[in-house]
Automatic annotation (TrEMBL):
Membrane topology: Multi-pass membrane protein
GO cellular component term of the entry, any: mitochondrial inner membrane
Source species: Trapa natans
Record-stated family: Belongs to the mitochondrial carrier (TC 2.A.29) family.
Organism lineage: Eukaryota, Viridiplantae, Streptophyta, Embryophyta, Tracheophyta
Compartment annotation: Mitochondrion inner membrane
Keyword terms, alphabetized: Membrane, Mitochondrion, Mitochondrion inner membrane, Repeat, Transmembrane, Transmembrane helix, Transport
The protein's name in its UniProt record: Mitochondrial adenine nucleotide transporter ADNT1
Solcar repeats: 41-128, 144-232, 247-348
Keyword Transferase: no
Domain of life: Eukaryota
GO-annotated biological processes: transmembrane transport
Annotated Pfam families: Mito_carr
InterPro entries for the chain: MCP (IPR002067), MCP_dom_sf (IPR023395), MCP_transmembrane (IPR018108)
Length: 357
């Protein structure tokens, strides 16, 4: 737990640094200082665009998101879900249409503010890092490199994930439970209050450390690959995809798909470990019911390394990639839709700056 406290302090420090850099960048801007009301309105529009992008993209792939989590945490001695199509058919047959979207309300309640903070943080981090880079290099026309974009994306991911992590924790439990689960969480607030009462406040951040480590390559690569690929296509005019110095929606969707594939492949094992650590202490989870119907306590993990070690020892290295197929099918359209929706909503709202700018 000490390592998680240190990591939390590090993320808080990162937040302060980004905010300070962004403020200095604004003050140093040649355009002058904007009116407070205009700046506030611009921030609100950016947050709204990010929230809409997150809600739309996650709802579109909600059935695959639920199946991924069920595959990640299911009992290896009582297999119910053997693949993407079989898993979706099983959920449909046992729980109906609503079963495919179970936990999506909680997921959107988490992902909307998470996405809003993530996109806004990326914009602010990018501006702050670019200002600092220009000042240190002495080049007023310098642009962000892929590595600097990776850093900005990593900062944005850590800030957004930390701000909404308790929601992610209870969302995982709501997604896993079925009608036959002995324990039934009635909703977001009931799950939060129950975990707080029975397991303590630290339980809400169980699995936080692997999440922090995983979000760096995941969100960092998503932003870095998406922005760098778009920038390269526009500047090189490769494949004749550029019209009026802009890329079509289809091309931007393709860029988002490539970015999502890179990010999720690198970070997926950490996502599996995070999800398993979140289930520790929940002895009534459906995923830990044996074949004879008797409740069985899940494995106890003392930390992230111990979770990795026990997972590989008991289930093999492939267990770190359980649910990868439905996650891949989910991530590709999800990331693509999120990026394109974000830019489209900002256009509709009349925001001058987009992440590419």
């Amino acid at each position: 737990m000490a390592s998680e406290d240190v990591a939390r302090k590090t993320s808080d420090s990162a937040v302060s640094t980004i905010v300070n850099l962004a403020e200095e960048a604004k003050l140093a801007s040649r355009e002058g200082v904007r009116a407070p009301s205009h700046a506030f309105l611009s921030i609100c529009k950016s947050l709204v665009a990010g929230g809409v992008a997150g809600g739309v993209s996650r709802t579109a792939v909600a059935p695959l998101e639920r199946l991924k989590i069920l595959l990640q945490v299911q009992n290896p001695h009582s297999i119910k879900y053997n693949g993407t199509m079989q898993g979706l058919k099983y959920i449909w047959g046992t729980e109906g249409f609503r079963g495919l979207f179970k936990g999506n309300g909680t997921n959107c309640a988490r992902i909307v503010p998470n996405s809003a903070v993530k996109f806004f943080s990326y914009e602010q981090a990018s501006r702050g890092i670019l200002w600092l880079y220009r000042r240190q290099s002495g080049k007023e026309d310098a642009q962000l490199t892929p590595l600097l974009r990776l850093g900005a994306g990593a900062c944005a991911g850590i800030i957004a994930m930390s701000a909404t992590y308790p929601m992610d924790m209870v969302r995982g439990r709501l997604t896993v439970q079925t009608e036959k689960s002995p324990r039934q969480y009635r909703g977001i607030f009931h799950a939060l209050s129950t975990v707080l009462k029975e397991e303590g406040p630290r339980a809400l951040y169980r699995g936080w450390l692997p999440s922090v480590i995983g979000v760096i390559p995941y969100v960092g690569l998503n932003f870095a690959v998406y922005e760098s690929l778009k920038d390269w296509l526009i500047k090189s005019k490769a494949f004749d995809l550029v019209e009026d110095n802009e890329l079509s929606v289809t091309t931007r969707l393709a860029c988002g798909a490539v970015a999502g594939t890179f990010g999720q492949t690198v970070a997926y094992p950490l996502d599996v470990i995070r999800r398993r650590m979140q289930m520790v202490g929940w002895r009534d989870a459906s995923s830990v019911v044996t074949g004879d119907g008797k409740s069985k306590a899940s494995l106890e993990y003392t930390g992230m390394v111990d979770a990795f070690r026990k997972t590989v020892r008991h289930e093999g290295f492939r267990a770190l990639y359980k649910g990868l197929v439905p996650n891949s099918v989910k991530v590709v359209p999800s990331i693509a839709i999120a990026f394109v929706t974000y830019e489209a909503v900002k256009d509709v709202l009349g925001v001058e700056m987009r992440i590419s700018d």
